[in-house]
């Protein structure tokens, strides 16, 4: 089956859209390489871009389940596998490009992975992604059984966290991007905890989650800078209140959460209107 077809073999607009979306970053990297616009260190730039997109797609794959409930969009489950596989492909490209940068000296690549902690955990995350990709097929679900398969694929959570950790450690100065990724991860995990605790997916609950996630992001950013650079945490926290420094990750996370609040509010209102019409028809 083609990746943009549904199980019946028909074209799925949703799957085609997501397929084009996950392929686009790779094509963009190739276009930059072909036109010589990857900078003075093109391979290094390609390494960073492929790694960044792997983490972004990992987070996007984890967003599928929350968005199904928030937007009442059950068909999104059809594209979760595609997004996860794409994340693994970009992670593999990330490693291959690193080997290229090392002039294909595999002994050096292995030794660097073993000796440099940020490379060690990055490689561990890659192995986990490959394992999830290999077992993502329908045949493997039947072979493992749904319960065992679900337990195995919950490893996506620690794998994503380790990938973000790798992102933090390889970033030299400005950690805004990994902080942003960590903030989104906090929201995604918070949503799952909210569901497990029995909270309804409603605008008020999502509003609280957006605010809590934003605050947690600001605190984690301040903790990182205070621990790793010695910059006073209070200065980092204050920067979140001054957009003259640019929009900080905490604010982006909060705004993304508020967008989902709005989406859910529209869904709830439409659902209430639909139930009202049905009740009116039944009363006639």
Automatic annotation (TrEMBL):
* Pfam family name, one: Ferric_reduct
Q: What is this protein called?
A: Protein-methionine-sulfoxide reductase heme-binding subunit MsrQ
Q: What does this protein do?
A: Part of the MsrPQ system that repairs oxidized periplasmic proteins containing methionine sulfoxide residues (Met-O), using respiratory chain electrons. Thus protects these proteins from oxidative-stress damage caused by reactive species of oxygen and chlorine generated by the host defense mechanisms. MsrPQ is essential for the maintenance of envelope integrity under bleach stress, rescuing a wide series of structurally unrelated periplasmic proteins from methionine oxidation.
Q: Transmembrane residues, as ranges?
A: 12-33, 53-71, 83-101, 113-132, 152-169, 175-194, 206-226, 246-268
State the similarity comment. Answer: Belongs to the MsrQ family.
Query: What keywords are annotated for this sequence in UniProt?
Result: Cell membrane, Electron transport, Flavoprotein, FMN, Heme, Iron, Membrane, Metal-binding, Transmembrane, Transmembrane helix, Transport
Q: How is the cofactor bound?
A: Binds 1 heme b (iron(II)-protoporphyrin IX) group per subunit. Binds 1 FMN per subunit.
């Amino acid at each position: 089956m083609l990746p943009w077809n549904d199980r019946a073999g028909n074209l799925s607009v949703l799957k085609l859209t997501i397929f084009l979306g996950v392929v686009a970053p790779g094509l963009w990297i190739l276009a930059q390489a072909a036109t010589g616009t990857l900078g003075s260190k093109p391979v290094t730039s390609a390494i960073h871009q492929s790694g960044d997109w792997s983490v972004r797609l990992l987070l996007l794959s984890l967003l599928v389940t929350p968005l199904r409930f928030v937007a009442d969009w059950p068909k999104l489950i059809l594209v979760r596998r595609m997004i996860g596989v794409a994340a693994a492909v970009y992670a593999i490209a990330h490693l291959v490009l690193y080997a290229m940068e090392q002039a294909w000296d595999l002994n050096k690549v292995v030794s660097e992975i073993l000796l440099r902690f940020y490379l060690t955990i990055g490689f561990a995350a890659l192995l986990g992604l490959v394992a999830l990709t290999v077992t993502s097929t329908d045949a493997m679900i039947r072979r493992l059984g749904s319960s065992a398969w679900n337990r195995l694929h919950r490893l996506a959570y620690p794998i994503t966290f380790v990938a973000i950790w790798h992102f933090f450690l390889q970033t030299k100065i400005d950690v805004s991007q990994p902080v942003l990724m960590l903030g989104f991860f906090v929201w995604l995990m918070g949503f799952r905890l909210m569901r497990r605790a029995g909270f309804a997916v409603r605008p008020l609950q999502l509003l609280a989650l957006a605010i809590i996630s934003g605050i947690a992001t600001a605190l984690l950013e301040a903790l990182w800078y205070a621990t790793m650079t010695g910059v006073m945490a209070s200065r980092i926290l204050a920067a979140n209140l001054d957009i003259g420094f640019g929009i900080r990750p905490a604010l982006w996370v909060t705004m993304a959460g508020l967008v989902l609040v709005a989406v859910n509010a529209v869904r709830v209102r439409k659902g209430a209107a639909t139930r009202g019409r049905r009740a009116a028809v039944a009363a006639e």
